[in-house]
């Protein structure tokens, strides 16, 4: 009997009739037991292609720390913020008044004061100025153009100051891997800059995603390469890259050169979360890992993208996502309307948004297989996406025949990436 997380509860599925069952979990990962000690090593002795932090930043410098917003709080950057600010003040002599923390929102909503406090930690929030980035602000600064013409407008607080980027590294459907330079675009960039970069997800010649754009792909990925060039236009003094396990516990810190330390973290993420499979399965069962990872459909899409990597064309995906908050942000699910009218590609190219692209990519992933979803979401809400949604697991399983089938299971579908071996 297979037990998987669903919302705040668990679901049992009988796989006794299956021909084979392969459960994909992350590879063994380290877990940091003494965060302060690990942080100190990261900024004093274990740097990657960088001088120690105290030789990069000096007393009297104006310092900007860039952190991610609430959608990435799983990386627990608040704990890193505490260590970093303490070190800057106590070991280097930086004044609290000379430090500002910018939350890299991209095009997401502004964080409330309570959320800013949560993201930076109360200890830091009470002593240091913490602000939202605004992608529509009038005072954004142009720091140049990338080779393919993206005009890079960024928050003025990352120009002319010593910048420390604190990011979390994961697989990413557009950029290959998240973290690192993504804190520049989209993190602290202008809305038009973000659009110019992200629209490169779409093929220039066909109505589909550019095949060079996908999770794990960095080389020749036009989105990643453009982001890298934008990152070079911002003079980042030091990078701190966080990798966590599926329990959101810190596994490793990769500190030092903004680009090189991030690349090392990508390798570690791929080694831990990239799991080889010899063949695609007849049936893939994917859980997001329960609440809050399955809070809405938008947050749950990572599990569908990874399930699609493991299922045969024409196979079946059983997807467990409670979605107590429905489809998620309007910028995501409102694209159902152009989908119904058959003009999704045209309208996305004309009015590109990140949420719109995730919706677009979701449609492509679903098209590979039959999608059966256990969810509280209204079945009529997702039928135009070709998702058959059920509120009862027994009713869903009546539609599935496991007899003689190869089954692949992803208990943490948003984290583990199946890698089909050649």
From TrEMBL:
Domain named Lactate racemase C-terminal: residues: 279-417
A Pfam family of this chain: Lar_N
MF terms (GO), sorted A to Z: lactate racemase activity
Domain LarA-like N-terminal: residue ranges: 6-208
Descriptive protein name: Nickel-dependent lactate racemase
Source organism per UniProt: Intestinibacter bartlettii
Taxonomic placement: Bacteria, Bacillati, Bacillota, Clostridia, Peptostreptococcales
Encoding gene per record: larA
